[in-house]
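Students often ask why we bother encoding 3D structure as a string. The short answer is that it lets us treat folding as translation between two languages. Here is a chain of 437 residues written in the first language.
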Amino acid sequence: MGNFFAEVKRRHIYRVAAAYAVLAWVLLQIVNNVAPVLDLPVWVARAFLLLLVIGFPITLLIAWMRELAPADAASGAVTTKLDYVIAAALIVVIALVSYEQLSRAPSTGGVQNAGTPPNAASSSGAISIAVLPFVNLSGDTAQEFFSDGMTEEITSALAKVPRMRVVGRTSAFEFKGQNKDLVAIGQALRATHLIEGSVRKDGNQLRITAQLIKADDGTHLWTESYDRELKGVFAVQEEIATAIAGALQVPLGLKQGETLVSNRTGDTESYQNYLRAKALYRARAAKPLTEPVALLEQVVARDPTYAPAWALLAGTYGLVPNYDPAYYSGSVTELRRLVDSSLAKAETAARRAIQLEARNAEGYAVLGFIQLLHGKFLGAEDLFKQALALDPVNPDILHLYSAFIAMTGRPKEAAPIREQLRPNPWFRYSTPPPRAF
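And here it is in the second language, the structure alphabet:
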């Protein structure tokens, strides 16, 4: 055995093993950081890890057979500067891996719900509520955008109640169109209470029904139906959210003059076009975003004070380059021109949204995205945290923030946030491959 270990040393097998370990760790970090940004499936990282494991003994075998040491080298190989470099790198890798495993993930700066996975168990006695997709009873599938919009608006309103944990919207939408037992849904979402309802829209007439259900036994705690004209839709959303908080005996925590539903406009046609544009934005695929942009530009032209439309327009402008033909086949100069133009429009629209509504979460998120693209990471993180503090279950903000912190080398922080977007019925599109511009 003594001769064997001497031969291992002479052939520099230790050096090869250490160098392989360092290189493998670096490659794994790159894959772990890039995978969330590109929305790669989990199996990609696992397959890469498996290849690295298989490659380790193969590399050692090749090193032994090729005998990396010179033929006339003495049996006691001389330690070189490269050995010290590899040893130091290996020590750093071991220290980082140990720290990562033993330390707890740092706090996300007090961002409400930002790091809580949808399936995390609620603390004892805490209220956790999930708003299931409202059923479209209009008899017209083209009105699906409206019932989905009602679901999202009520979810957003309830998320403003301080002592109420609201399950991520994308997690709740997993059960859209599924006739599953409510107790099973509550267990899957780890929610203490569920809200389900329906929307029937006939021209300007609305009938919205909502009910609050105790998830552990399926009993109904509250139910109500609202027959209103379309112009009364915001009042209905406010009443539903307020009634649910009251039934659960949770204080609203509103300041003087604040409401749970701030997404209001006096132009009902603009509001419907806003919801249509949001549905198109959510279901975007690898094609230009011209239709939602056109709808939103009409909305802000008709109602220049409608902050949510400005915020959604800002987000849409920000993604225009990714779905333009120039992204795939245009020149770098053409794409750069498109990016500069789109980001300038996005920043203007986002600032307009915040100017009109100081607590507009989407506006802060878009500004954070722009700061990220400009390489201003500290400013970007502050803006993302502001956005999540205002709307902790917004899927677009969660998507941007989780990708950001993964890109900045914190995959352990990104993972639980990313889990809130899986399964994700709103992000069905394929992320375009990155291009340098």
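Translate back mentally: Residues 2-102 form one domain. Keep this in mind for the problem set.
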